[in-house]
Protein 1
Amino acid sequence: MTRIKVHDKYFVPFITETQISEKIAGLASLINRDYEGQNLLVLSVLNGSFIFTADLVRQLTIPAEVQFLRISTYGNTMESSENAREVWGLQNLTLKDRAVLIVEDIIDSGYTLSFLYDVLEKLQPASLTVATLLFKPAAFKGTHRPDYTGFEIPNAFVVGYGMDYAQQGRELKAIYQLSE
Ligand code: 5GP
């Protein structure tokens, strides 16, 4: 199996480019169906979601506005944390009465999403849903489960397709998991 090295760690192939693109086509058709006749506001959570967002929105046939948010976190590169956070990028956005879709790369503990969801809900969108490429159900401790999930995966640490290990590996076309 082709191992790759990112910083000091080895990763092995996990989800191929083809599997990702087929999955995204499926997710997009669900979103196109669910939001038919609406103007969708897509809120992409940086940095990890930038590639997923780019591929997902290019499969949408409904009108969509795309904006980017950043959530500041404090802590380690390979651990999710429950620490205090702040959302950047909402200053010039109006969510009130709009159909809003949060786009995440991966939901692990779900703490990041729960925090963001609560912040956005207070801005009174007409609807608020979540699309994530990857979801780790066994790690999930949050309050909001994703509405659109690409792949449910075990508790492995993954890189590629936008996701990093200490800021490296985002450019990989496929998704790799940490080798034992
Ligand atoms: P949560 O708050 O759901 O525990 O964590 C969400 C964030 O943690 C993701 O947006 C991502 O930045 C990071 N994260 C969680 N699991 C992984 C993983 O397996 N690989 C990478 N690269 N980041 C992850």
Protein 2
Amino acid sequence: MADSFDVVVIGGGPGGYIAAIRAAQLGMKVACVDDGSRADGRPAPGGTCTNVGCIPSKALLQSSEHFEHAGHAFAEHGIEVKGLGIDVKRMQARKGKVVAQNNDGILFLFKKNKVTFFHGRGSFTGGSAATGWSLRVEGPGAAELVARHVIVATGSKPRALPGVAIDNRLVLDNEGALAMAEVPKRLGVVGAGVIGLEMGSVWRRLGSEVTMLEALPAFLGAVDEAVAREAQKAFARQGLAIHTGVAITSVKPGKKDVAVAWNDAAGKAQSATFDRLIVSIGRVPHTAGLNGEAVGLKLDPRDFVDVDAECRSNLPQVWAVGDVVRGPMLAHKAEEEGVAVAERIAGQHGHVDFNTVPWVIYTAPEIAWVGKTEQQLKAEGVAYRSGSFPFAANGRARALGDTTGFVKIVADAATDRILGMHVIGPFASELIAEGVVAMEFGASSEDLARICHAHPSLSEATREAALAVDKRALNI
Ligand code: FAD
Ligand code: NAI
């Protein structure tokens, strides 16, 4: 006899587990199915984000930043460090502990909210919206389920470089890049995107010589041009060798290292041998094992689950959220869609505005933005004004000893409504929230400029950038 639920969520990443909690809060009988497992076989809900993405990468970024500060920045503060060393195994064990705390936290939240958790692979077996969708769970939590509504939140997996097998020994995807037990002397990275820059930064700080091979001619092409230029300068200073306009011609793993050949931007053949190679060239939707074919679940030409603006699939009462559908592949975008879908199922009006989804790259300097870049506005023919303020002129940044970068506010020339905020510098990941709030409330740059900001704080740079839109910054 199958268990019946109002909502079954397939996938327990940030899209899925948050959808399950919100649906349960709204009074529905909810189950969440997730196949992630820890090394000892216990469930590991939280998806890519918790297990091999956001959380472990930020744990390693933090550890490696402490190491870098101890080695390079402390001296300036008069702090002497002698005998500085690195124990990568311990660093990795700490990362593992942080991940496990998050896994356990999600299991606790399921209990608290009365979400029934099934550990295993969920797949469609048949049914309809009228009779309820039939699902099977295979694995430790094997079960047969019937659901009035199904939310597919099966996430994404790394995009493969054609002809290059990931062995997570020499040629690594995100899982391998996060799990190295020692610091490779020579680290190659194919793809200078978000993962490449974050992982490249971790291992460079720990001592690797890092070479990044990026296909596109422009570095960080989607980012504000001035931010990308500042980032490229900062990363070059740190010793990240970033080559753009590269076409990889061969990747040959040997016994202990990997030989990589490429044509450079001028078409000249180049080659290098690396102790490890990270391949981070984007991610693709993950629907294998879902058996969507059994019910006719439609995928789009890029294999994402085909959904409308409200995350409805082609099947009634089957929804999809997060990385498995169009839009930015970000944990908080997945969460927002999960909440919105749960609310729509409950008859409410959930809403997600992609234009106010913030982006953050957790390098040093951090890079964050929301809304439109100047180059996008130019392409769209929108008249705008922009104002920037450098951290070099901010007292708190000077006290921190971290004055790289700036804040930029972009506002509509006619209405002064804020259209975008771009930050490169200390705590950009936190500062960007003010821009998101301002944009959500339809604020003008004048509104931001007239808000009292604490002194001394990095957020004063945001206020000054807003003042600079009207050419009246006070501290520069
Ligand atoms: P996922 O998190 O991928 O979760 C899907 C879950 O479903 C997985 O547990 C999977 O095993 C399970 N599953 C799949 N099929 C089935 C099935 N048939 N039955 C049962 N379970 C199934 N985003 C940010 O916003 N900030 C960051 O700092 C950040 N850092 C990242 C760092 C790295 C290295 C990577 C790789 C990604 C990072 N991301 C970050 C992206 C973020 O991880 C994803 O956008 C997010 O995890 C997507 O959530 P999701 O719920 O859609 O899917
Ligand atoms: P990405 O899209 O950020 O970067 C991939 C890079 O690889 C691009 O610059 C692309 O031009 C390049 N590339 C593609 N094919 C190539 C080839 N054949 N040779 C060389 N370069 C090639 O994807 P990435 O870094 O893999 O990350 C996947 C996604 O995960 C991100 O887009 C983001 O959505 C998410 N993520 C988010 C993070 C955050 O929010 N801080 C951190 C890490 C990942």
